Amino acid sequence: MNKELPIKPLISFDKYLRHYDQLLKQGSAFEREKAGKILSAQKPFPFLRDGFADVNLLEEHEDVIQVILQDSFADVLGDNEIKAVSFPYFNEMFNPSRRLRKILQEAGPDFTPELKNQQEGLDYIMACTVILNFHYGYHLDFSRPYFFEIPDAKGVINYYRVLYNADFMEIFPTEKSPEITQDIVDELLARPEDVEFWKSKIPPESFVGKGFVIVNMFNVTADHSISAIKSELIASDKRGSDRFMDELQDIFRSFFRLKDLKVGFIKYNHKDNRFERIYGNGIKSFILHEKDTEFCKEALCNGSYDKLLRQKTYFVVPDVEKFAAMSEGKGFYKGLEEQGIGSAIFAPIASAGELLGILEVVSGEKKVLNGVNATKLDDVMPYIVSAVIRSRIEEENLIDAIIQHECTTVHDAVLWRFKEEAKQFIIDELEGRQPSFKEIVFDEVYPLYGQIDIKGSSTARNAAIQRDLIIQLSRINSIMEKAKASTSLPIYEELSFRLANHIDEIKEILHTNSEQAIFNFIQEEMVPVLAHLKEQNTDLAAEIEAYEVEIDPETQSFYDHRRNYDQSVMRTNKTLAGLLDKRQVDAQEMFPHYFERYKTDGVEHNMYIGHSISSGKKFDMLYLNNLRLWQLQVMVEMENAYYNLKKELPVKLDVASLILVYNTSLSIRFRMDEKRFDVDGTYNARYEVIKKRIDKSYIKGTEQRLTQAGKLVIVYSQKSDELEYLRYVSFLKSKGYFTNNIEIVELEGLQGVSGLKAIRAEILYKSGEDKDRMYTYEDLMETLKN
Questions:
Q1: pLDDT at position 576, please?
Q2: What residues form DSSP beta bridges with 676?
Q3: CB 522 within 8 Å of CB 472
């Protein structure tokens, strides 16, 4: 016993034997006789009373000690009680009961039991609190639970709660024993982890501990496992760790007392009635095995489907091999058998009648998992359900965060106002008032609007659809012509005639309903005929199969030209939006403002700036002017980014840029139903009307559209706006953003709006290969062609 403690340990049976000294004088005849025998057995060995530190003496005098302790270690209870004699804060145990001796033997010859939750230095502080309580008379709560982890013969860890009976311990001061005042106690309690400080106040071996403790142990494996499962599942940081599943499986092994046991999980997709893999470190599924997802009907047999999905109760397979043989090696049981599973329990994870997923507990041994021990899961399923619900909420929050990042969201610049309203909502609810999330309005803000629109997108999309349909119809017609030649069935000639008519119709013009009408015709009438020909006419089978390979699995039609168009639009939008978002980070640093953007056939953006948005930061019109200049620069950058991307696109379209200047402040309101901001009030609605209509407007007195490729259009209504933006354009022209080709035009009157004018400034482009060289739009187009 070499551990450093404030108590010098001496093993002694003196206090224990004093009880028999008393019985020898005052006990009954039976008690006196028994006491005499015990005292006589001890008498030749006075050190058993005086105390000793050499633990080897315990083994040497084991027979005498057993006689002394016969009343505390009743032989009749030896096969049931788990107990031994020890000294506080040491792991040495002697005089173990028969059951404890058997437990330690099964653990193996090299196993030494150690207290589970001992911390370095904590025993010293715990021993000090005992001294403060029993010697100095201070009342401190020093009790805490202790556990032993002991493996059984199969290697499964069992947990034993340890209770100490210290009735036969005495503490005596030495010459090193200090004087302890309340102030010192207060200092000690203020530093509960500073072992060196405690040593300075209560030095090592400043007291003598004389006696022994009786260690009583209780197998609490089930309770400990339930608690451990709860802890593992509650701790969100653990659930993402590499060790989570390994630790959880170890706990389940102790819980079921089975070494050969594995745990798996799958989640349930209610919408599609499918099981889906849970992606996480080490999380497996024995139902899905190698698959990521599968329909429940296909993954399970009828019995397991009924139990798990309809009745939402456990489904137990005690002998997988037997059930696999009965099912002739098919489906559900075959999959389990192929994984080396001998028995299994599948438990539905359900809340309020809704199935969330399945817990899978499997073993390689037959019949060790069965209907009896399946009921053990009743104690842990509530924690599993809670963990799954919480994980689902966390997943939904993550999905929401991603959606908000990709789509319109509550912008950071105005988030402070939403937090204020949410806090008030909570306060109202706590104080018993009817809580309501009030509408959020920002008054006197200045709007900025810009768009880069893909010109002729509708025409290009229709042309792509037209080409794909003509190619698909022509391929089918080629097959019909060959079928007609080889088989004189009039129906083939009639179908060929209709195919030719459809081709002629869409060559002229693609009507709104043409695509759907042709799709229905092919699916309902031509697909069955092609399937018949493929089966009956071996000469046409290869050509039909070649046609089927070209069918897109998602659209069930030819999707070559449309794919090129869609990819071109997608890459364009992604490039433009990415650049805008990147530049927005810098703009927010200049002055906080609300920003939102939309991807359509191109990219649009709205910005609002003003004192009500700035959250305490003083607003000045200088910040509005700065944001307007920033917007002009970024619009030209986006034009450059697209025209450097254009040569890589399958479909080379043009874009046109436009900015709307509005010099009057307005109010914006967050629409709770649409989860977005909109202008507030009838007068302010004029701004939205102009936004929706200007890109389709014409120059007054001409047939020329306002927006043109290669030019940035700035629409305004006030002379002051014209002068301001001409200054900006002049400045940016000196920086190489625009040419000298700058014009002012008047717009044709729009419905409900008149008096609008526009500045059209020709953009100077910079090639990706030669950043220093400037191009007009015409120059750039010639360069891109080459």
A1: 94
A2: 671
A3: yes
Which 3 state secondary structure label does DSSP give 257? coil
Q: Please name the amino acid found at residue 495.
A: L
User: What confidence tens digit (pLDDT) does each residue in 588-618 have?
Assistant: 888 988 888 888 888 999 999 998 888 778 8
The DSSP annotation for 270-293 comes to TTTTEEEEPPSTT---TTTTT-SE
Backbone angles phi, psi at 739, to 5 degrees: -90, -175
Please, which residues have CB within 8 angstroms of residue 339's CB and are 6 or more apart in sequence?
286, 289, 362
The answer to whether 518 touches 506, Cβ cutoff 8 Å, is yes
Work out the number of other CB atoms within 10 angstroms of the CB of residue 271.
6
Owner of token pair 């397979």: 317
Could you give the count of Cα atoms lying within 13 Å of 498 in the half-sphere of its Cβ?
A: 11
Q: What is d(CA 373, CA 18) in angstroms, rounded to the nearest whole number?
A: 50
Q: What is the DSSP letter of 307?
A: I
Per-residue pLDDT of 677-715, as tens digits, reads 767 665 567 787 788 888 788 999 898 999 999 999 999
Residue 326's alpha-carbon distances to 199, 297, 308, 361, 369, in angstroms, are 71, 19, 21, 22, 19
Ramachandran region, residue 340 (left: φ > 0; alpha: ψ -120 to 50; beta: rest): left
Length of the chain in residues, anyone? 786
Residue 168, classed as helix, strand or coil, is coil
User: Residue 282 in contact with residue 244, Cβ under 8 Å?
Assistant: yes
Alpha-carbon torsion, ordered 268, 274, 278, 283, to 10 deg: 100
- Residue 602: Cβ-neighbour burial (10 angstroms; 0-12, 13-18, 19+): buried
Separation between Cα atoms, residue 212 and residue 706, nearest integer Å: 99
Q: Which residues pair with 266 in a beta bridge?
A: 277, 358
H helices present in 240-364, as ranges: 244-256, 296-299, 302-305, 320-326, 331-338
The mean-pLDDT minimum among 449-463, 571-585, 772-786 falls in 772-786
Residue 81 corresponds to which amino acid? E
CA pseudo-torsion sign 403, 404, 406, 409: positive
**Contact predicate 111/100, CB 8 Å:** no
Comparing 398-402, 409-413, 634-638, which segment has the lowest mean pLDDT? Answer: 398-402
Residue pair 213/254 in contact (Cβ under 8 Å)? The answer is: no
The dihedrals phi and psi of 393, each to the nearest 5 degrees, come to -65, -45
- Residue whose C-alpha is closest to residue 160's, from 233, 88, 95, 104: 104
Burial of 362 (0-12, 13-18, 19+ CB in 10 A): buried
Other residues' Cβ atoms within 10 Å of the Cβ of residue 643: 24
- Exposure string of 142-159, with b = 16+ CB inside 10 Å and e = fewer, is eeeebbbbbbeeeebbbb
DSSP secondary structure code for residue 309 in this structure: I
Q: Tokens standing for 784?
A: 């891109």
The answer to whether the beta carbons of residues 361 and 263 sit under 8 Å apart is yes
Main-chain dihedrals φ then ψ at residue 742, nearest 5 degrees: -125, 130
Tokens of 404: 């908000």
In this structure, the number of other CB atoms found within 10 A of the CB of residue 3 comes to 13
CA-closest candidate to residue 750, choices 695, 703, 670, 702: 695
